[in-house]
Amino acid sequence: DLISFTQNLSGFTLFVVAKLSELSGQRPLCGTDADGFRIDYDGVANAWGVKTSGGHADSTIGGDLNFHSFGLVFNGTGATNADRLKFIYDGVEQGLTFSTSPGTTTSGTATTFYVGQDVSNNFFQGDIGEMLMFTRTLNTSELIATEAYLKYHWGL
Q1: Which among 47, 53, 65, 75 could bridge 137 via Cys, Cβ 3.0 to 4.6 Å?
Q2: Model confidence over 59-111: pLDDT tens digits?
Q3: In which element (H, E) is residue 82 found?
Q4: What pTM value is reported for the model?
C-alpha cells in the first residue's frame, strides 16, 4: 500500500505538477498525517512550504494561477536543516525558513496519504497533473533529469 511505501525512510523525493485556482486559505497539495511529509500553500502568508518528520519550512515563493513543478527532497542523513529538507520550485532550489527541524526518517506512524487535502480537511483548489515519488533522495543529476522531463512534458 502507498502509505507503508513512505514510512521510516532516511531519504525521500516527491515531485508534483499542479496549479492553484484559489489563493486564499490553507491549500495542501499532498502529504501524510502523523507528522509525515507535505507540500502546501498558505494563502495568509502567500508562500509555499514543505514539511517532513517534524521539520517545517516556508519559502518566499508566492502563489499564482499557473502550472508549476514542486519538489520535496528529504535526506535524513544531512548535517543541517537545509541539507535534510529542500524545496524545488520550477527546477530551482529555494531558500527556506525553518520553524522546526526535520528528523532523520520519514514518519513511521502515518496512516493516510492525502492528495489535494490534509488531515484537517483543508482542500487544494486547482489542478494536479502529475506526481512522482521516490523512496530515496535523488542525486543532483537525477533531480535535473526529473525536472527536465516535467518541464518538457508539461511545457513549463
Answers
A1: 75
A2: 999 999 999 999 999 999 999 999 999 999 999 999 999 999 999 998 888 88
A3: helix 81-84
A4: 0.93
- Residues 77 and 120: their CA atoms lie apart, in Å, by 30
Q: Is 133 helix (H, G, I), strand (E, B) or coil?
A: strand
Whether the CB-CB separation of 37 and 72 falls below 8 Å is answered with yes
- Angle formed at CA 136 by CA 106 and CA 144, multiple of 5 degrees: 125
Strand order in the sheet with 85-89: 92-94, 85-89, 68-75, 11-20, 126-134
Which of 77, 75, 118, 71 shows the shortest CA–CA distance to 92? 71
Q: Which three cell numbers stand for residue 42?
A: 498558505
3-state SS assignment for residue 139 = coil
Give the helix/strand (H/E) hosting 141.
Answer: helix 140-154
- What amino acid is encoded at 153 in this protein? H
Residue 76 region by backbone torsions, left for phi larger than 0, else alpha for psi between -120 and 50, else beta: alpha
Considering only CA atoms, which of 109, 15, 30 is closest in space to residue 68? 15
State how far the Cα of 58 lies from the Cα of 42, in Å rounded to an integer: 9
